């Protein structure tokens, strides 16, 4: 169908309105996911739409963003399919050695969401999700012969891996007014909120037709970078025509091919989930890992009545690197910092599985800056120079090399 709207760009006045709508959207966002996974590690399989586009009243991009902002959905349940295609090679178990996940041996726990949900970094997965306001959410990862569940009920956060019969218990951190696990997107709503943050004068925002997703009529909101050099081709969001809830999120790379991120519901209900959905008691004999106030796990069996701070995002970031700077703006912005003269080792120097991983990702690069290696995915690329400077962003290799040359 033809796009709704008179053109494919956004005027300065419209940009201000879009930003205002995005800020309101942030206030109304429903915390469906109990824990986040890095945005680049999440996607949903395509082909979730039913045949036939619904005939809906025309709506502008600004009106649709306002509809997302005004969405008051707090109760839902449904099924989500997740596929990620970053173009990464087979990790060969490397991700477990880096995150401490996997078997649950050592000091880690296979039920720790920080390590368990790294499985969403590649492949296709099915999730069941449920929410009843800000204090009750559940996410279950369905596996071949087991199930992993993450439950937030009031102050308690539980992770349970049925395959290993291990439990992780922590408490929600609301010291700053929100649970810090909401900072990383994990559902179409979360991903859309982050995409709307990028709406500025470097962005084209249009409504391009309609879709039928999970039995719901939806509008298709399309967000595109205006400038060349970004690895992001476009973001497409299917927005429930009645509720304003994002039902599907697709990020297509500028290089073409399959979506990098494609997140959507295959089934959804807005009925209030049963209260028992969010109940959890550790099974008899389960090994429980308790997160204490200092962030160090304390292990014991059969008793889960310890409390303390939950630091579920420690495995992803402890704040930005010292001396972090940002070059440019919008979709082609590049973060840069200096490691202090220590460049990235070659695969032969690193050795083992990690060395092979580096070799599979890296391309040699040179310019006025000297020499270095570009580590690439279909979305995020990073140039690490031999003298230890790092340039990273959702931009092409040429954009990284240009930035490094101009920094000399």
* Shape, principal axes of CA atoms: globular
Count of individual domains: 2
Q: How is the CATH topology of the largest domain named?
A: outer membrane lipoprotein receptor (LolB), chain A
What's the CATH H-level homologous superfamily of the largest domain? Lipoprotein localisation LolA/LolB/LppX
Number of helices: 8
The pLDDT mean sits at 74
The CATH architecture of the largest domain comes to Clam
Largest sheet: 13 strands, mixed
- SSE series: HHEHHEEEEEHEEEEEEEEEHHEEEEH
Judged by helices, strands and strand pairing, the structural class is alpha+beta
Radius of gyration: 22 Å
Please mark out the parts with pLDDT under 50 across 5 or more consecutive residues, or reply none.
1-9, 20-51, 91-106, 175-184, 293-319, 350-354
Total beta strands? 19
Strand order of the largest sheet: 7-8-9-10-11-1-2-3-4-5-6-12-13
Helix-strand blueprint:
Elements: H1 12-28, H2 61-70, E1 75-84, H3 94-99, H4 113-116, E2 123-132, E3 136-142, E4 147-153, E5 156-161, E6 166-171, H5 188-196, E7 203-213, E8 216-225, E9 232-240, E10 246-253, E11 261-269, E12 287-291, E13 297-301, E14 325-327, E15 334-338, H6 347-350, H7 352-361, E16 362-367, E17 370-376, E18 381-385, E19 389-393, H8 397-407
Parallel strand pairs: 6-12
Antiparallel strand pairs: 1-2, 1-11, 2-3, 3-4, 4-5, 5-6, 7-8, 8-9, 9-10, 10-11, 12-13, 14-15, 15-19, 16-17, 17-18, 18-19
Helix pairs in contact: 1-2
């Amino acid at each position: 169908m033809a796009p709704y709207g008179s053109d494919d760009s956004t005027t300065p006045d419209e940009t201000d309105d879009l930003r205002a709508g995005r800020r309101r959207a942030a206030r109304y966002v429903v915390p469906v996911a109990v824990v986040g996974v890095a945005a680049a590690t999440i996607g949903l399989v395509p082909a979730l739409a039913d045949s036939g586009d619904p005939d809906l009243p025309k709506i502008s991009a600004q009106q649709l963003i306002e509809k997302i902002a005004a969405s008051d959905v707090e109760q839902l349940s449904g099924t989500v399919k997740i596929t990620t295609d970053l173009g990464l090679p087979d990790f060969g178990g490397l991700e477990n050695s880096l995150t401490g996940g996997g078997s649950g041996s050592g000091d880690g726990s296979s039920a720790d969401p920080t390590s368990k949900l790294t499985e969403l970094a590649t492949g296709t997965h099915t999730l069941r999700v449920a929410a009843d306001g800000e204090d009750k959410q559940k996410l279950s990862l369905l596996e071949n012969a087991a199930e992993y569940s993450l439950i937030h009920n009031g102050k308690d956060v539980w992770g349970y891996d049925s395959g290993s019969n291990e439990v992780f218990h922590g408490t929600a951190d609301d010291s700053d007014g929100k649970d810090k696990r909401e900072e990383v997107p994990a559902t179409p709503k979360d991903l859309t909120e982050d995409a709307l943050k990028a709406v500025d004068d470097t962005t084209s925002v249009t409504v391009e037709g309609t879709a039928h997703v999970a039995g719901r009529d939806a509008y298709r909101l399309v967000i595109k970078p205006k400038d060349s050099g970004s690895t992001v081709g476009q973001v497409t969001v299917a927005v429930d025509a009645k509720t304003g809830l994002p039902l599907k999120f697709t990020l297509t790379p500028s290089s073409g091919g399959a979506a990098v991120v494609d997140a959507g519901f295959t089934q959804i209900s807005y009925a209030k989930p049963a209260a028992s959905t969010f109940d959890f008691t550790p099974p008899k004999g389960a090994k429980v890992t308790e997160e204490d106030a200092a962030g160090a796990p304390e292990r014991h069996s059969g008793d889960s009545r310890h409390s303390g701070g939950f630091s579920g995002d420690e495995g992803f970031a402890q704040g930005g690197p010292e001396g972090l700077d940002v070059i440019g703006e919008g979709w082609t912005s590049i973060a840069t910092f200096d490691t202090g003269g220590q460049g990235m080792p070659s695969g032969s120097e690193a050795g083992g599985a990690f060395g092979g991983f580096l070799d599979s990702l890296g391309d040699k690069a040179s310019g006025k800056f000297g020499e270095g290696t570009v580590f690439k995915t279909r979305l995020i690329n990073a140039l690490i120079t031999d003298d230890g400077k790092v340039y990273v962003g959702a931009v092409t290799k040429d954009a990284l090399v240009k930035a490094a040359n101009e920094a000399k």
